[in-house]
Amino acid sequence: MLRIVHKLRSGFAKMTVREAINSAMAQEIERDSNVFLIGEEVGQYQGAYKVSKGLYDRFGKSRIWDTPITEAGFTGLSVGAAMYGLKPIVEFMTFNFAMQAIDHVINSAAKLHYMSAGGLRTSIVFRGINGAAASVAAQHSQCFAAWYSQVPGLIVLSPYDCDDARGLLKAAVRDPNPVVFLENEIMYNEAFEVPDNVMDKDYLIPIGKAKIMREGKDVTIVTFSKMVKFSMLAAAELEREGISCEVINLRTLKPLDRNTIIESIKKTHRVVTVEEGWGQCGIGAEICSVINETNAFFHLDAPIVRVTGADIPTPYAFNLEELSFPKAHNIVEAVKLVLK
Amino acid sequence: MIFRISRSCFSSISVKLPSFKVHHLELDQLPQTATTTSAELLAYYKSMQLQRRMEIACDNLYKQRLIRGFLHLADGQESIYEGLHAGLTFDDCVITAYRDHCIALLRGDTPHQIIAEMMAKQTGSTKGKGGSMHYYKKATNFYGGHGIVGAQIPLGTGLAFAQKYLKKPNVTLIMFGDGAANQGQLYEAANMAQLWHLPAIYFIENNLFGMGTSIDRASANTKFYTRGDVIPGIQIDGNNVFQVRETLKFAKKHCLEKGPIFIEAMTYRYHGHSMSDPGVTYRTREEVQQQRKTRDCINYVKNIILENKVADEHQLEEIDNTAQNEIDIAVEQAKVDPVPPSTELTTDVYVDNQNHFIRGILYKDSILPKSQ
């Protein structure tokens, strides 16, 4: 039930990313009785960020589980339930708190299928807010994309818009592997037009496939999540100066879509990577290495330029926070650097 | 210990159980005796001997460097595993940490599979990819086999959660040691189990030492059966297979009606924590020998057998030899089994492995997804 979706014209509706995630969860919980949502404040409070609004009233306490503030406990519990055959959606209020439970994501879930030589599996989704919000300071602002993407056995997804949120979350729930699903608080409020087919209860996006948001021929910008928005803004500005950017929205961080990146480089010969997280061993670093190791290297006309978060714990002061994370103007500058 | 109270014409033998200590329970809720038969006694004896011989064989293989890495042996604690096998069914889940060989055996793996796994052979329980700490068997609801102390506790609570969610008339036995009993995640998990009335049995194997640290040095409260706070608890003699069995039957009933329960089973491991621990720096050799002489769980059953003339020494010796023979054959077979083929390096990372990219040591050695 999407009472907050506004029909604009036939074939399209307008919804926020929050609503997209909410509707995807609702459809999956409806579809499969083994799917349940578990986390802090997801039920009676309607969700700390209102992402699970209405689900408790609709599905009740047997499907929407409010937990005590015990990440290690409820994450391990959810992995155990998945080992038995249920399909939990575990909500971390933010992925910062998931550090208390990370042993269960990595050692109990990700490695299990391998250690058991295929005997056990965990079809589980760990989802929640990742990266910076606004003025929430150092302990609430970290991007965990790089940490989770390194781990064999995990799938790591990061949606940008409603299309991504719906298709990727539904694919994640249905995937037999453990999935880390990195959302973004700022994107929750962003509204997008959504074609009818995206609202379909079986709308799925293939895992491991990036999306070209905007075609171009001068530079390839590779990015994900909220940075897609800034990359698109940068691309629009650069267009006015006669520079044509191809923007790739990764959608999946693990497995990374090498082919889409390589094919784009063959066209543009220049790459800028954009991420909110810290540079060292980050997603951009991985993309640089992937390009370096494949034949894409020989199609480059310039070294790759990375745009990353500054190497600092996030400051509280608004003006300092603004200087901590990439904005559209940083991406514009990066593109001009790579074209020099 | 009084071994014989009555012997009916159906050859049923009554065994008096040791006393219980209880927490938030009444003593009169618990049985004072257990019933057994000649056949059952011999079956317990044989099975526990098989466990014992298997563990000793592993000790030898480790010293010959045919088993490597970590090896945590459970000889001395066989009655716990025998008791859980007798008190629960294969529809009840079991989960434990890394001292798991005997549970793997009782939950359906053969000695050959278990030993071959530790010897890193392709014929091992998990194709040589898991090793001593990672045995699993979905078909008999044995969920491992976990290396991180305490991690199995919330996992097991999740198994119980799933059983209740799916309305199964079954319980989950969550096993951990006195060392793990101080883990925060135990209290997080048990809190949820109590809140949600999950059919979880929190089972503490108290062998008095967490690695080299005695319970007095690790726990402010060493009455582990009371550590569940509002959750009821029972302390038993883990070296008494009958008390383990009867307590688990009671616990299962309790869990299905009310919710979680804590059981503390007093026991003793003859080996050190692992093969790198001689086990005599924090306890004396005399103490270990005393335990063997007076509290051995196999001798306990042996004495009942002899007292009740179920079998004589000679017959028991034959059973011993049969058990030893079975282990010897398993070891010899495992020795000649092949190691896993190198292609197994990259299998099973994902359920649908063929759809994923798996980097090799060099990029050129990577496995590409089928679609690329």
Describe the protein.
The complex is a heterodimer of chains A (340) and B (372). In chain A, a hairpin with a 2-residue loop joins strand 1 (6-9) and strand 2 (12-16). In chain A, helix 3 (71-84) packs parallel to helix 4 (102-110). The mean pLDDT of chain A is 96. With 340 residues, chain A is α/β, with parallel strands linked by helices. Chain A is 37% helix and 21% strand. Helix content of chain B is 38%, strand content 12%. Chain B contains eleven helices and ten strands. A six-stranded mixed β-sheet of chain B has the order 2-9-10-6-5-4, sandwiched between helices. In chain B, helix 8 links the parallel strand 9 (233-237) and strand 10. Chain B starts with 11 loop residues before the first strand and ends in a 36-residue tail after the last helix. Mean pLDDT of chain B is 96; it is low at 1-9. Classes of the chains: A alpha/beta (340), B alpha/beta (372). Chains A and B meet through helix 3, helix 4 and helix 5 of A and helix 5 and helix 6 of B.
Structural class of chain A comes to: alpha/beta
**Molecular shape of chain A:** globular
Q: Helices and strands of chain A, in N-to-C order?
A: EEHEHEHEHHEHEHEHEHEEHEEHEHEHH
Distance between the termini of chain A: 52 Å
Radius of gyration of chain A: 20 Å
Shape of chain B: globular
Helix fraction of chain B? 25-40%
Task: Provide tags for this entry.
heterodimer, A: 340 residues, alpha/beta, 7-stranded mixed beta sheet, 15 strands, globular, B: 372 residues, 11 helices, disordered N terminus
Topology overview:
The complex is a heterodimer of chains A (340) and B (372).
Chain A: E1 6-9, E2 12-16, H1 17-31, E3 35-39, H2 55-59, E4 64-66, H3 71-84, E5 87-94, H4 102-110, H5 112-115, E6 125-129, H6 145-149, E7 155-157, H7 162-174, E8 179-183, H8 185-188, E9 191-195, H9 196-199, E10 211-214, E11 219-223, H10 226-240, E12 245-249, E13 252-254, H11 258-268, E14 271-278, H12 283-293, E15 305-309, H13 318-322, H14 328-339
Parallel strand pairs in A: 3-4, 3-5, 5-6, 6-8, 7-8, 11-12, 11-14, 14-15
Antiparallel strand pairs in A: 1-2, 2-9, 7-13, 10-12
Chain B: E1 12-16, E2 21-23, E3 33-37, H1 38-63, H2 78-87, E4 93-95, H3 101-106, H4 111-118, H5 152-165, E5 172-177, H6 184-195, E6 200-206, E7 209-210, E8 213-214, H7 215-218, E9 233-237, H8 241-257, E10 261-266, H9 285-295, H10 297-307, H11 313-336
Helix pairs in contact in B: 1-10, 1-11, 2-8, 4-11, 5-6
